[in-house]
């Protein structure tokens, strides 16, 4: 879902104002929500928390990974949606693994 704000296109969940090309910012963006979910798990009494955590964190990671690749100029904005394909079948994730996780 996109919203146009002035000259910038804001994708819900990611901002053009956040420099996802910076690997430190990227790792903060993927670790902080994971830690929050782990802390939430500690206090959750529901037996369904793993399912809820999967449905919250899975799409978030796909969006942040796709947005990082887009900002680095490796994929088009329309290809961000392809990051939602599950990992064994996601050739884009495998193809750009080094650029996503290892290169600055």
Radius of gyration in whole Å, from Cα?
A: 15 Å
Number of domains: 1
What is the SS-derived class? mainly alpha
Q: Unreliable runs, pLDDT <50, ≥5 residues?
A: 1-12
User: N-to-C terminal Cα separation, in Å?
Assistant: 28 Å
State the strand order across the main sheet: 1-2
Strand content range: 5-15%
Q: Short description, anyone?
A:
This protein is mainly alpha-helical. It has one domain (2-101).
How would you characterize the overall build of this protein?
Helices cover 52% and strands 8% of the residues. With 104 residues, it is mainly alpha-helical. The chain has one domain (2-101). The protein is globular and about 45 Å long. The protein starts with a strand and ends with a helix.
List the helices and strands and how they pair.
Layout: E1 2-5, E2 8-11, H1 23-43, H2 49-71, H3 91-95, H4 97-101
Antiparallel strand pairs: 1-2
What brief labels describe this structure?
two-stranded antiparallel sheet, disordered N terminus
């Amino acid at each position: 879902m996109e919203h146009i704000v002035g000259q910038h296109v804001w994708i819900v969940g990611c901002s053009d104002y956040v420099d996802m090309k910076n690997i430190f910012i990227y790792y903060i963006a993927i670790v902080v929500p994971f830690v929050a979910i782990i802390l939430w798990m500690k206090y959750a009494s529901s037996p369904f928390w793993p399912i809820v955590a999967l449905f919250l964190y899975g799409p978030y990671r796909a969006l942040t990974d796709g947005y990082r690749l887009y900002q680095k100029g490796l994929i088009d904005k329309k290809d961000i949606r392809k990051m939602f394909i599950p990992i064994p079948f996601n050739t884009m994730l495998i193809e750009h693994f080094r650029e996503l996780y290892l290169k600055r």
